[in-house]
Each structure stands twice: as structure tokens, then as C-alpha cells.
Amino acid sequence: MVVSKKSAKKAAKTASKKASGAGKASRNNIQIQNVVISVDTGTRMLLDVLARHLENAEYEPESFPGLVYRIKEPKASTLIFTTGKIICSGAKSFEDAKFAIGKLIKKFREIGLKVPSDPKTEIVNIVASAELGVRLDLNKIVFELGECEYEPEQFPGLVYRLDSPKVVFLIFNSGKLVCTGARSEKAVELAVENLRKKLKEIKAM
To answer: Which of 2, 31, 68, 86 is deepest in the core (most CB within 10 A)?
Structure first.
């Protein structure tokens, strides 16, 4: 097979972009801690019936309108509502979250519920940790960046809201970060990299 110069250049450019993205994630030591997804089955749920059929399900309608069901592998927790909506949290990736929902849907079908095999699913939040590898000057960050909340007498971390992508960071002077609010893993990587650039610009790291 003959590969044109144009195709070779395009392939090299794509590979370079992938390597660059992987390098940034590695440099910032990003770890996904929790992926929260929302699922709409479009099927009304009789939660009292589900509570009887799903082993170890928790359903106390007097205190909370949803049913709690935990999946062991992959480890995830689900909240099931009568509307047919499900919130799944605790998974370490979108793939794991979808796999957990797939196992739940299989159980629904086993007890006679007619639910779609591939319901509408979206990521509503990703929680990730990262490490910049250097100590940070939190007082300088507060003074230079704005959009910060920092009360060291009450809590050692600084809260910073980034506009693009729209996420919230919890920043510690050790260089450790917690990022919440992203809707994709790429958004997490971009947010951490954008924060790193801002901190370098103000010489806070």
C-alpha cells in the first residue's frame, strides 16, 4: 500500500496531538476520581416493586424519593426515580459508569421491565485530582486572579472558579488540586493546563 505525503503528514500531526495531550495529563498527574452520569430510560418505575427484587436496595420514600442501588463491579452507586431517570456516581470512567448502568438495565429486564438497551446518557460532572509538582503561593493567587475564596483559618484550600472550561478548583499550597464541574476528561485536562498557565503568568508557582 502506498501512503501519500499528505496522508503521512496528517497521521503524524494526529499522533503528535495525541502524544501532546497524554503528556499534559501525565505532567499534571491527573486522576479521575468520580464520573457522575444521568440516564433517562423513558420508563416509569415502581420503586416499591424494584426494592423487593433488587438485592440490598435501599428505599425509604418518607425521607427520600429515590431508590438507592449499589453495583459492586464496577463499583458505582445509582439513584433510581419513578420518572425513569437514574443518576450513577462513583465510577472512575464514563465507560465504567455505562457498564454499571448496563448491568442495572439487565436486572430491570429480568424482572419484566421494558427499558431500552441503550438509553439517553450524559455526563453531568467529573471529579478529578491533579498535582502540579510544585508548591503554590495561595495568597498571591487570591490577590492576582480574583474569583477566589480563601479562608485559611477555616480550611487550607483555596476555591477558584475557572471560566474556560467552566470548572471549580480546590487548590492547596502543596500543588495538589481537585477539579469539579467538567463534562469530559478532555475538559479536565484543558482546565488543569489553563490553570497551570495562569499560575505561571502571575509567578505563583
So the answer is: 86
